[in-house]
């Protein structure tokens, strides 16, 4: 049974349950066995609720597309009764939820068996997952000396290691795509407001945040997105409706596309040689598939740095609001939050209301400039990160200089200069596992399309997966971690 579990994606496991070949309890047994074996080294799974998961199975699972498949929620948002939250912070430790988020309601209706949560940096701020509430960093299963990414770093680690075939994540500046790149997975960020955010969030970080998933196979991502598609009632944004859905989009090969490659940042700064190699390989692949591939001509007026500064101000204000809301007038014990959080609060205190609105306007103005960038192209291809996954500790959230941590030399935006761009613009973007470095670390390739073109991006991704499948490489890691029993 374990061998079947480790070699199957969520879609295949659901088919086995549907056909009566395995039971939901047997699959949960496998997931729990994997947690026991691998989590001590990875530090990725928290808030285990086996009894609740067993009761959910006994009471009868919905006839959804993932009936009986074990699943994990990110320890940030995704409110669900019976699954307490840390939000990556000692300040929220074991906070009970008295209601279900709309996202969880839809995931439960899909038949998933949720049994715990995965680690996140404090309040989702950062491209690494090294929160003091978990007692240590979350580590990358490809090499535990390196980060699994952030903010959905726990989700990336558990999927790559074979603990579960798919897991929930969220993405406010790359927090699904960064761990996807770091862990050799698929991470798809849909168009703004494609997925529900309520009832607790009106808009995350000025409309930049959205939920998502970490998966090994593209078809799992497509089926999960279809299962939860559509904003909830009263949402402040509304995306262009899908034509047929993500799964059907995978079955339609795209017509010839105009592809722009960029092997530097969008400001022209060089990136690691492994990232350049990944882009060159992908360019050749896309040409072989019949697409028209050209180098991106960087516009002088894009001004990514101005957007990143505005994004930093919005995140600082959002972080300060979250902390003060939970304190409810009580003084903050500085030891209860990370240094970066203390720095964000201090930085937010320097930002006036008009400064905040100016930052929101700057982000939306940048989104318009990005729309013009796509006026002559269908897809932009870049690295997901500027280098392979960083060593543990390199971006540890200790610094109280929030601006320097985000935008200074060697900071967050030097490491991740691509992903937040598409949170700002609201465009769909995906990280695909198309390259591994010389020392066997994953290097993701990032593809983005115009606002609302989610299905077209999914169709291109499916064409790429078929031409350059990555499942075998992922399975090498799972088999290695499982040892002799995985033959």
TrEMBL record:
Source superkingdom: Bacteria
Ranges where the Amidase domain occurs: 26-457
Family (UniProt): Belongs to the amidase family.
Name of the protein in its database record: Amidase
Organism: Sedimentitalea xiamensis
Lineage per the UniProt record: Bacteria, Pseudomonadati, Pseudomonadota, Alphaproteobacteria, Rhodobacterales
